[in-house]
Structure formats: structure tokens, C-alpha cells
Amino acid sequence: MKGEPVSSNWDNLLKLQELDSQVDHLEHEISILTLSLGLNQLEEKKQQLVNDLEINREVLEKAMVQISERDSESREITSRIKKLEGQLYGETKYGSKDLQNMSHELKALQARRDEIDDEELREMEEIEPVQNLVSGGENELKSVEIEIEETITKIGLSEKELRGEIEKISSEANLVRETVDMSVLEKYSKTRAGGLKVAASQVVHGSCGGCQMKLSATELDQVKHSSVNDLVLCEQCGCILVPRETVP
């Protein structure tokens, strides 16, 4: 406000900077919620589990197909063995050569069935660890998915709380903003809009409170005699230098 004392203008400007900095800090906290609560790590862990499960399921599926094929072959052989045994030991009479051929075929089929049974048993033993990997991976994936849902809920609640604080501080900042000289406020707002978060600062131990750059005696004298109509900006960072020396 133009009618206010100069000191009051500076006080209000510094108060505005303080409130805006609080809002900046809270906005930053919101931006890193997913990181601070570990959501990114959980999502990465979930993706790794999904990839591992896909590989193990593929291995398991191929092994189960092989076992199924051997089981089918074993059933066919068993059926053929029963048929041959019926012919050998049934009432129908066969010549000695036919009987000999059937006997040889029977022995060969029995040997092949035993071989299949051994292979199937070995494959079942080999497949058990893969089945455990798939089962364990599925359980772990469910656990991680639940943890992700809980973390997302926490993030939502935390963000809601932080947004509430931001709204409260922003309302106070808007009231303070109305008390700052228009020309000073315009410069302050443009500086912050340009990316500089600390747009107004007191001199601290002869240095800019924004970037800590040491000021020369001439610059300090300029700051001391500055006014709302004659602002002094830090040559290093561009923030408005408030004409009062302070100790942090």
C-alpha cells in the first residue's frame, strides 16, 4: 500500500516471502510423497515379480505339457499291453511265430512304459521347485499389491492434509499481499514467476540472504538507502534486497 510506512512495506514483503516459502516447501513435500513413502520402489518390485512369474510360469507350462504327453503315451501303451495280453492268454489260438512276435512286442511295450514312468517321475521332481517359485511369487505379488494400495491411500491422505495447510497459508499470504506496495509486489511476483523462489531477502552479515553472495560496501549503502520506488536487486540471484541488516 502506498500510504504505509516504508518499514511496514518491507515487513509485509518479508512476511509474504516467508508464507510463499512455506507453500513452496509443502508443494515440494507433495511432489515427493510417492518417493518418501516408497511407492516407486514398490511399483518396481511388483514389476520384477510379474516378470519373474511370467518366466517361471512359462517354464512350468512347458514342463506340464511334456508330462501330459508322456502320460498320454503311457496310457496308449497300457491299452496296447492289455490288448496283447488278451491275445496271448485268451482263447484264440495263434501260431508260434505270431505268439513270439506278440511276446516280443509286449516286452518292448512294458520296457517303454517303465522308461516313461521313470522319466515322468524325474520330471515331477524337477518341476517341484518351479511350482514352489510360482506359488511363492504369486503370494508375494499379492502382498506387494496390497502394500501398494495401502501406500496409495496414505499418499492421498497425506496430500489432502498438505493441501489443507497450503490453502490456509495461501489465504494468509493473499491478505499480506494486499498490504505490499503495488510496484514492489509486481517486481516480487515477476521474480518468483521467473523461477526464483526467494524473491525478497534481508541482508545477512553483509551478504544476500537469498544466494549468500557477499555485497560490496557500495552495494550495502545502496540497499540501506533503497525504497519502494528505488529497489536494489542482488546482482547474483536477482532477489529484492531489503534495507535492514539482520543476524540469522
Give a structural overview.
This protein has 248 residues and is mainly alpha-helical. The chain folds into two domains: 6-17 and 181-246, no CATH class; 33-176, Orthogonal Bundle (Helix Hairpins). The chain is built from six helices and three strands. The protein has helices at residues 6-31, 33-36, 39-89, 96-177, 182-193, 217-224, and strands at 200-204, 207-208, 240-246. A three-stranded mixed sheet has the order 2-1-3. Strand 1 (200-204) and strand 2 (207-208) form a beta hairpin. Helix 1 runs antiparallel to helix 4 and helix 3 runs antiparallel to helix 4. It is rod-shaped.
Number of strands: 3
The fold-level CATH name of the largest domain is Helix Hairpins
Q: Give Rg in angstroms.
A: 41 Å
* N/C terminus separation: 28 Å
Number of folding domains? Answer: 2
Major sheet, described briefly?
A: 3 strands, mixed
The amount of helix comes to over 70%
What best-fitting shape do the alpha-carbon axes yield? rod-shaped
Query: Which strand-content bin applies to the residues?
Result: 5-15%
> CATH class of the largest domain, anyone?
Mainly Alpha
Q: Reading side by side through the largest sheet, how are the strands ordered?
A: 2-1-3
Helices and strands: which structural class?
A: mainly alpha
Secondary-structure blueprint:
Layout: H1 6-31, H2 33-36, H3 39-89, H4 96-177, H5 182-193, E1 200-204, E2 207-208, H6 217-224, E3 240-246
Parallel strand pairs: 1-3
Antiparallel strand pairs: 1-2
Which keywords apply here?
248 residues; mainly alpha; Helix Hairpins; 3-stranded mixed sheet; 6 helices; 6% strand; rod-shaped; disordered N terminus
